[in-house]
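Running this now, will post back.
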Amino acid sequence: MKKSKRNVIQEAKDFATKAHEGQFLKNASAHSFITHPERVVRLVTDAGGTSEEIAAAWLHDVVEDTKVTIEEIKKLFGREIAELVDGLTDPDHFSQHPHRIRKAWQAERVAEKSAGVKKIKLADQTVNTDMIGFDPPVGWDALQRLEYVEGARLISLKCKGISSALDKNFEKIYHKAFNAIRKDMGREK
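Update: finished.
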């Protein structure tokens, strides 16, 4: 039996919340990790995301950050959502490299993905850029932050045209974050 739109979104939210239980953002605010996918979901929803895209937005980090596998996602949520999550999940070898290399690889990878993957990825990069600009991970200096947001911009360019609202929102957040980081660079000298 096919799940209703409401059920699949709620089930994805519940699953992600449980999978990320006990995880916290690594920034000064140290909010529960689930606040990150929640913000991504909000942007995907506002951009007219389908129920599958919204469910995948809830699930987009569970494979990278927990013991959940793509196979489990497919079994529980179906092929379409699993394909979206898989398109958003970095291959294992990405994590062994600095952000400037990872982001370049992510940009290359997302260029070949579906519109749904690009929509969620752009929302994710918007949320991440905002965090890196204004509530960065503890211990990150301005140069690390700048490399990250520049990499996020590379990704955004590969997702451009999927949603004009997401494109505009990313550019606004990117410029604010970039300017804040440049100011911080001046203070670190």
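Residues 5-188 form a domain with the Hypothetical protein af1432 fold (CATH 1.10.3210.10). More later if anyone needs it.
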